[in-house]
Amino acid sequence: MPALSSSDLVAPPPAPRPVEVTDLDAYRRLHAQSLADPEGFWRERIAPFRWTRPPDRILEGDGPGARWFVGGQLNVADNALDRWVDEGHGDRTALIWESEGVDHLRRPLETRQYSFRELRDAVARAAGALRDLGVRQGDRVTVYLPIVPELPIAMLACARLGAVHNVIFAGFPDQALLDRIEDSQSRVVVTADGGYRGGKAIALKSVVDAAARRTSLVEKVLVLRRTGEPVGWTPGRDHWWHEALERATPAAPVPVASDAPLFVMYTSGSTGKPKGITHGTSGYLVHTALTALHAFDLRPGDVNWCTADPAWITGHTYTVYGPLLSGAATVLFEGVLGFPDWDRAWDVVERHRPAVLYSTPTLVRAWLRQGDAGPRERDLSSLRLLASVGEPISPSVWHWFRDVVGGGRTPVVDTWWQTEAGAAMIFPLPYVTPAKPGSATLPFFGVDPAIADAEGRLLDGEAAGQLVIRRPWPGMLHGIWGSPERYRDTYWKSVPGAFVTGDAARRDADGYVWIVGRTDDVIKVNGHRLGTAEIEGAVVSHPAVSESAVVGVPDERSGEAVLVFVVLKPGFSADAELESGIVHAIEAMVGKLARPRELRFLKALPKNRSGKILRRMLREWAVTGKVTGDTTTLDDASALPPSTDGELVDHVQRGIE
Question: Which of 29, 83, 157, 293 could cross-link 127 (Cys pair, CB 3.0–4.6 Å)?
Fold first, then answer.
């Protein structure tokens, strides 16, 4: 193997215990085998899992119709919980939770721990309660809960029954919740009276009630008592969680076909309608478990802390399923890590002793801004590995994370993947791959990335363009819920035979992959994807607004920030009240994550002659104050000034406080 050419290499630390892949040559041989002989490669690696029926074929089909582990049967909850109990590890810790609230000594007001046996029993009883409410295999269940142990318990209870969970971030408003209930056709919703976030009690049951009033779909609502605040109640429909579990008989795991859907997760796309990304059972299980092993070195008895909310794909995969499938304990934290201050994270590490800390560059930047005192004053020696997800991590932040939080001794595993991927796709093997800070480095087994140009042609060698995946991988999505045509058109059409990720990337001389940004109309705020069309729909719902365009701009705190361009109807003018009304509409329909950093009012939006809004020009103008490149496609050249020094009638730019 030729030597790596870059001088900006950080050698991996020595492995603290034996690993399967010992050097880069071994990695390259295994990666090549995984592409050339998927049947042999994956059949060997699925043996440790508990199959009711082993698969007949490893991979069948190609492109959007590909299916993994065909003919097999298993249950994900059985593999995550029952398997460890039956193998004699039932007393090991499976879940550690602490509340956001703390006392005067910074101790959490509430903590709970579950062993694998206790968690298995809680999940079995919750599954029995859902079964009593009529949930059967294949049914969709919407879960709208705060970050409490009952959130992963509800997810695993659905998986135990072979039902499909649809977890919604407990900060989304009723319209976003309604859209997802209706699209997934959920008859049962699991929620709570409320939750705690940022030191405040946040109502949740009332949001569910508001959504349920506008649909005839919701037949049953299971309500967890969390805050104790009074809630509205619909007899016959609403049931208390604790009462339902007391009455329930524990449910056994239901074996399901390998390609049965496990969950639907809604993510914003380039249209106003969220996409219900659907993941199957066995492919997701295998990819998740094996990346937990190879990316994070998770083994039975380890403690893992992924800071992601389970309502997002990172939390699904590496807060809930990945650790438990590995026999490791997972740390669950309620609320926000800035409460009561940004040293809370180091308190959690010192208290619960995780070996792995997996977070986002957004959080790492927030920690860095507080200085070194917090992490240096705590005992962080349990940390063996640090990891990052959600956006590229800059070299300076990478080095601070390793040197200050990791004490200069840990690897930093910078992962690239997305909701559609199911689990990590491109990342360094922590004790094998030399890191290049800022690069996701090399692909995982079975992953075949490529760079394509704007016309869909694949590029060789060093190249920059759109990142595509040339063949199926185990954790790949099964489609968009209820929209097979949208799935094909969105992901498989523009580059024939390849999955189009929507991310721009470059490949260097060593084959390392560097993620540059998005190529579609999606903004990543704090690592969470927001569709510009969904935000624009909220803006134009305001009676004063004629048109809107939304773009993402770089932001030091959140990675990207939302910038809204607005064209008002005749007779309206911009003022503080109008701006407040637009912001309220965005928060009510999309959520507080979509709160814009700025509103900018224009006489007209720049469009091409077919009427398409030229967001690229708006984004460039917002960031640089100028528009470069070809502007000949503009239908009205006066819609955008050449620079911020140019005159723009009635242009108002205000930051949103």
Answer: 157
In this structure, what DSSP letter does residue 81 have? I
The low-confidence residues of the chain, meaning pLDDT below 70, are 1-7, 268-272, 520-521, 533, 608-612, 628-657
Which pair of structure tokens corresponds to residue 596? 């814009």
Give pTM, 2 decimals.
Answer: 0.85
HEC states along 95-140?
EEEECCCECCCCCECCEEEEEHHHHHHHHHHHHHHHHHCCCCCCCE
* Contacts of residue 471, Cβ cutoff 8 Å, sequence gap at least 6: 35, 62, 448
Q: How is residue 288 written in tokens?
A: 């998740």
Distance CA 168, CA 154 (A): 12
What's the pLDDT score for residue 632?
44
What is the pLDDT at residue 557?
81
> Domain limits of the chain?
73-340, 526-655
Identify the pLDDT of residue 518. Answer: 72
Give the distance between the most distant pair of CA atoms in the chain: 74
Q: What topology does CATH give the domain 526-655?
A: GMP Synthetase; Chain A, domain 3 (3.30.300)
Q: How far is residue 108's CA from residue 521's CA, in Å, rounded to a whole number?
A: 41
- 3-class DSSP state for residue 268? coil
422: left (phi over 0), alpha (psi -120 to 50) or beta: left
Query: Which residues does 375 contact at the CB level (< 8 Å), separation at least 6?
Result: 346, 367, 404, 405
Question: What phi, psi does 221 have (nearest 5°)?
Answer: -130, 120
pLDDT value for 554? 87
CA angle 240, 246, 250 (to 5 degrees): 115
Query: If you write DSSP's letter for every residue of 215-261 in order, what string do you get?
Result: -S---EEEEE-SS-------TTTEEEHHHHHHHPPPPPP--EETTSE
- ∠ at Cα 83 (75, 15), nearest 5°? 110
Predicted local distance difference test score (pLDDT) of residue 604? 84
So what's the pLDDT on residue 107? Answer: 95
The reported pLDDT for the residue numbered 650 is: 31
Residues 155 and 501: their CA atoms lie apart, in Å, by: 27
The predicted pLDDT at position 280 comes to 97
Q: What is the pLDDT of residue 334?
A: 96
What token pair was written down for 616? Answer: 């690229």
Strand bridging mode 528-531 / 559-568: unpaired
Beta-sheet pairing, 499-507 with 513-518: antiparallel
Cα–Cα distance for residue pair 324/82, rounded to 1 Å: 10
Beta strands in 435-495 (DSSP E): 449-452, 458-459, 463-469, 479-480
Whether omega before 434 lies within 30 degrees of 0, making that bond cis, reads no
CATH class of 73-340: alpha beta
Q: Token pair of 121, please? A: 């029993």
Cα-based angle 79, 83, 85 (whole degrees, multiple of 5): 135
Closest CA to 326 of 83, 91, 34: 83
Q: How far apart are CA 129 and CA 36, in angstroms?
A: 46
Residue with tokens 């509340």, as numbered in its chain: 99
